[in-house]
Amino acid sequence: MGRKSTKNTPAKNVVADVPEKDEEVVVPPKTPARSPKTRAQKSLAAGGATPAPKTPAPKTPSRTTKSTVDTPAPKTPTRAAKTPVVKTPAAKTPAKKAPGVQTVPSSDEEEEDDELQVVKSVAPSVEVAKKEEENDTVEESSDDEEIEEEKSTSPKKVAKVNADDEGSIQDAKDQAPQAISALKKFFAEKNEKSLFPDIDYALNLSVTYKKSAITTDQGKIKIKLPHSTRNINNTSVCVIMPDLDQSDAAKRDFDVEKQSREWAEKIEVDHGLTSAHIAKILTKREVERIAHTYKDKRSLASTYDVFLSDGRVYNSVKSFLGKEFYRAHKCPLPFVYQKPISTAIENALRTVVYPLRRYMVRSCVNVGHLGQSSADLKENIDTVLEKIASKCPGGFANIRSIYLGASDGKPSLPIYVDNGSATEITLPTGSVRDNNPLKETSDKCSTLPDGLKIAVRKNARIRVLKEDTDQSVLFPTVHDEHSDRDRLKPKIDPAKVLKKRERRRKGKDIVKKQIKKRLEKKLKRAADGPINTIVTKKVKKTA
User: Fold this and answer.
1) Domain count, the chain
2) Which residues pair with 353 in a beta bridge?
3) Which of 10, 254, 299, 532 is most buried when burial is the number of CB atoms within 10 A of its CB?
4) Are residues 355 and 465 in the same domain?
5) From CA 79, how far away is CA 74, in angstroms rounded?
6) At 451, phi and psi to the nearest 5?
7) Residue ranges of the chain whose pLDDT lies below 70
8) Strand order in the sheet with 412-417
9) What are φ and ψ of residue 539, in 5° steps?
10) pLDDT score, position 121
11) Residue 45: its pLDDT value, please?
């Protein structure tokens, strides 16, 4: 208890008698590692119970000079004399910072200087330029997406047409005017009134292949006719736009056509198109509401002649409309809103779609109307034939026949026929990955006898090879050792397998000989020239 009382009494005396010493000790810190307040409290607390020279004498003079220890001066004047001589903030501050009037800048002033430096280092014009660049990139990306969609529908490489195919194409072009005049004469002599002349008197080009494509890199091609019968006056155009409001409240709004009206006003301001040019404007959400069932989709497809869709919602709208629009040949065509919509409508009215799906033996495309002049129809047919020759699977040599006729198929006149064999046509049998040579990995297997190894391909086919010659062998066979209790018994009979392989080899040799004979006959026929002789088969009469 006596020790606690000695510590408490000097602490009260220090606060009452010596307030200035505390301030002088706090301002000039002697060492950065220790706090001056802690040393002052320790020295004053020790000075109250013990003589003054014990505590300050070994600490303070040892770090400064030895002369201060020998002086018999009292405690208070020695600290006052050391304070301005050893270290003062006025001497250090102007050395680091230039202001001559300010001695010690406060923390608030330092923060203000830092903030001013940050503001000066970053110019506001830089931020604005970045935002403008971002907006430009967004607009360019929308255009690029549309360009990529257009590129996806057309192949990157254009197939070259050889000399023989060019001759066949020219023959079909020369035969087309005769078929056009014959069809016009037929319908003129028929002289029947039609309720739908635009449909009944439309001309279609029907193409039949020798071999159907097993794989393809595109499902259709778009052909722009030089002379089209469709225009704004006789064709209804429906435009599908994205939703302006994506909120949940807009999804539950009972007014379905609200955003369509907003789009109509916006299109009129931006592009100058009114209801005279566009028959109907729909939004993506409105299409999903009114065409929910297959019946509704069929009725929507039959309501309008041409459908255009904004590139931002083209893929989703196309997948939603599905097969009903594909069967009706009314699949929407994409366009970019930033470009003139009038140009997109004109291109859509001139565009016809030629399908190139897999396993199709016959395709059909519209080439015009009998009400057009013969010269315009011939130019349309020539354009379509050139496009088909460069894009169809197997080239023009794979085409068996081309017929020109009315939409109902009666009558239909041939303009090109090729009776060549389909075995002469070579088509890819799979994707690019399937046509690449298969890589197999071979290694030893512990379950195989000595001298054999196993080879595994990427298509999971397994072969057994000889280690020295890498020749494939049949293993295990019925002649190998096995017991009656084995669950998996070998079923490979080498004699049967070899007999089957020989039968296949003979069949392939026969096919090759037949193809060779046909080619020789075709070359001989071409060298002799055209012969208009009628060959009749002799029929044996039985008595």
Assistant:
1) 3
2) 222
3) 10
4) no
5) 9
6) 95, 0
7) 1-161, 163, 430-435, 530-543
8) 362-369, 202-209, 399-406, 412-417
9) -105, 125
10) 34
11) 60
Q: What is the pTM of this model?
A: 0.52
Burial of 230 (0-12, 13-18, 19+ CB in 10 A): buried
Whether residue 326 is found in the same domain as residue 473 = no
Contact present, 478 and 490 (Cβ < 8 Å): yes
- Please report whether residue 522 resides in a domain: no
Residues 172 and 62 in one domain: no
Dihedral angle computed from the Cα positions of residues 90, 91, 96 and 98, in that order, rounded to the nearest 10 degrees: 70
Q: What is the pLDDT of residue 386?
A: 92
Strand partners, 466: 452
Structure tokens given for 373:
């002049």
At which of 424, 458, 478 does a domain end?
424
Residues 228, 277 share a domain: yes
On whether both 369 and 440 belong to a single domain, the answer is no
CB 413 within 8 Å of CB 179:
yes
Residues 262, 274: Cα–Cα separation, whole Å: 13
Q: How far apart are the C-alpha atoms of 444 and 452, rounded to whole Å?
A: 7
CB within 8 Å of 130: residues ≥ 6 apart: none
Three-point CA angle 230, 235, 241, nearest 5°: 120
26 close to 39: Cβ distance less than 8 angstroms: no
173 and 275 inside one domain? yes
Read off the tokens for 510: 């026969």
Residues 6+ apart with CB under 8 A from 29: 35, 36, 87
Nearest CA-CA partner of 409 in 200, 114, 145, 136:
200
pLDDT at 487: 75
Rounded to whole angstroms, the Cα distance separating 82 from 60 reads 9
| Domain, as residue range, for 467 | 435-501
Per-residue buried b or exposed e for 82-103, using 16+ beta carbons within 10 Å of the residue's own CB: bbeeeeeeeeeeeeeeeeeeee
Q: Where does a domain end: 47, 70, 94?
A: 94
Q: Please check whether residues 291 and 192 belong to one and the same domain.
A: yes
- For residues 153 and 220, the answer to whether their CB atoms sit within 8 Å is yes
Claim to verify: residue 338 and residue 448 sit in the same structural domain: no
